[in-house]
Amino acid sequence: MNGPVAQAVAGNPEFARQYTNFRNTAHHALGDDLTAQVRQAVAQVHGLDQALGDTAPPAMPDDKSAELCVAYARRMPFEHTAITDAEAAEVIDAIGEPGYVALSVVAALADAECRAAMVDLPALARQA
């Protein structure tokens, strides 16, 4: 794993390993294509051209489930408290409860990685 969070936690190898395992587990649970689409959507919300650490932009959503997930992910950084139970239920109906949990984790971690890059978290961690 690379990116500002990985760089910031590199000084604590055990924590870095656990964080990487947690992140990779969520990515695996959501699937490579949808993970890439979600990470791209969150990066765009933050005004970044592409998700951090990703080498190529993902394909656009090609089905209703993916479209719902990407729309949900776009709202996570700044509108998460406005997501209604009905909207969440629609996503759960499309990808199941485990998928919804994975989607939420992937979106939240992508948001954190974008924010970490924007404040140069690795430099802040070195100062601590």
Secondary structure layout plus pairing:
Blueprint: H1 4-9, H2 13-30, H3 32-45, H4 64-79, H5 85-118, H6 121-127
Helix pairs in contact: 2-5, 3-4, 3-5, 4-5
Name the features.
128 residues; mainly alpha; 74% helix
Task: Give an overview of the whole structure.
The protein is mostly helical and 128 residues long. It has one domain (4-124). 74% of the residues lie in helices and 0% in strands. It contains 6 helices and no strands. Helix 2 (13-30) packs antiparallel against helix 5. The longest helix has 34 residues, at 85-118. The protein is globular, with a radius of gyration of 15 Å. The protein starts with a helix and ends with a helix. The model has no long low-confidence stretch (mean pLDDT 85).
- What is the 3D form? globular
Q: What's the count of strands?
A: 0
Segments where pLDDT lies below 50 for 5+ residues?
none
Count of individual helical segments: 6
Mean pLDDT: 85
Based on secondary structure, the structural category is: mainly alpha
Q: Could you tell me the strand content as a percent range?
A: under 5%
Largest sheet geometry: none
Helix and strand string, N-terminal first?
HHHHHH
Structural domains: how many: 1
Distance between the termini: 22 Å
Estimated helix fraction: over 70%
Write down the Rg.
15 Å
